[in-house]
Amino acid sequence: MVYDVNALLNHINRIRKEIGHEEVSIDIKEVLYDKYTNEMWIITNDRPDKSAIIGKGGWVIGRLREELEIASIHVESYSDFLQKEYRMELSLNKLNSFVTENKDNLDYGAFIALNNLIDILKIKLDNLYSFNFYKYFKDLDESPYGYFEAEKPAAIVALSGGTDSSFSLILAKKLGFNPIAITVDPGTIVLPKQFKHNIDKLVSELDVTHEYIQVDYDELIEESFTGRFHPCGRCSKIIEDTLYKYALENDIPIVIFGDMLATGSQCITEQICNFDENEVKINENSENESSVDKEVNNHKVIRLNLPASLSVSKLENKSLTSHYNLIKFKGFGCPLLYEVHKKFPHMKRYSIQRILRETRSGVLEPGEALDLIWSFYKTD
C-alpha cells in the first residue's frame, strides 16, 4: 500500500495539535508499508523530523498507530541510515577482500559460511530501510534455496545468554557456520541462573552443541573490590583467551563475538594468540611449513564480530531474539558490576562511558542509553 506523504503529514500535525504540541514543518523522505506484517516505516530527512513525528513521550506516534490500525510504525532518519550504509559497505569490502585473500587457507565450511554472510549483507544493503532478519530467515527456511551448513563446526560463538550473544548464535546457525556455543562460567556473581535459562533454551531450540567452561574468577573478583579497576575489561580478556584456546585445540577457524562496535574494516580480523605449548595442545597438520610459519599458523584464529559486520542496532537485535521467548533483562552488566558500583560509585563513570560508546556508534538510541544509565541509580 502506498501512503500519500502530504496526507500523512496532515494527519500527524492534527494529532500534534489535539494533544497540545505546536505545529511544525516536518520533512518525510519516504514511507514504506508491508501489508503482510502490517508494519510502516517512515523515513525522515534528519533526527529532528523523527522526533517531531514520535512526539513527547511517544504520544504522537502512538495515536498515529492506533488511528491507522497499524501493528508497528518505525520512524527512522535518513541521516542515520547514511552512516549505517557506509559502515555496511566498509564491512562488505573487508569481508570480500578477506575471503579472496584467504580462500586457499580457509576451511571449506568457513568459506561457504562467510560467503553466506556476504550474501545477506548485500541483501540488507539493497533493503536498507525495511530488512527484517526474522522474516528473511523464515522465508529462506520455507524455500528450497536455504544456506548450506558446514559439515563440521566452522565457528564457535561466545554465548552469555544476553541479547547480543543470542543474536550472534542465531545468525551463525542460520548462515551455516554449524557453530558450537561456548559459555565461560565463573559462577552466579557473573553468570546468573536466568542467563543460563536463556542459554539452555536457545541451544536446545537451535540444536546447537554447547559447552560450559568453568573459569576461576576469584582473583578478578577480589581485585574488583579494591576499587582499582573496572572489571569488564579484564573479564572480556579472560573470555576471549578461553575461546581462542578452545578454537585452537579443536581446530575451529573462527570465533564469533556479539560486540557491535567493531564495525566496517574491523568486523573480521586475524588474531595471533601468544599461548605457550603447555597451555594449548595443537594438532600438527602440515609437514611442509617452516617451524616459524607452522608456529604462527597454529596460533592464528579468525575473530568475527557478527552483528557489527551487519551494523545491527539493538532494535534489530531484539526483533529477532524476541521470537525465541528468552527472558528479557533490564539494566546493564552482571551482578559483580552492580556490587562494584555500590561499593565504588565512581566506577559508574566507566560503565557510562561504555554505554555512550554504543550510543555514539548508533547501536543504542539515546532513550535506551538513558534507561541503562538510570538503572545504575535505581539500584542504589
Shape: globular
Q: What is the helix fraction of residues, given as a range?
A: 40-55%
Mean pLDDT: 88
Largest sheet strand order: 6-5-4-7-9-8
Terminus-to-terminus distance = 50 Å
Q: DSSP strand (E) fraction?
A: 5-15%
Number of extended strands: 9
Work out the helix count.
16
H/E series: HEEHHEHHHEHEHEHHEEHEHHHHH
Q: Roughly how many Å is the radius of gyration?
A: 23 Å
| Quaternary class | single chain
Sheet/helix structural class: alpha/beta
Description:
By secondary structure, the chain is α/β, with parallel strands linked by helices. It is 51% helix and 13% strand. It is built from 16 helices and nine strands. The protein has helices at 5-18, 47-54, 59-68, 78-102, 108-126, 133-141, 163-174, 193-206, 218-224, 231-249, 291-298, 306-309, 314-321, 335-343, 348-360, 366-378, and strands at 28-34, 39-44, 72-77, 155-158, 180-185, 209-214, 254-257, 268-272, 300-305. A six-stranded mixed sheet has the order 6-5-4-7-9-8, sandwiched between helices. Strands 1-2-3 form a three-stranded mixed sheet. The N and C termini lie far apart (50 Å). The model is unreliable at 282-296 (pLDDT under 50).
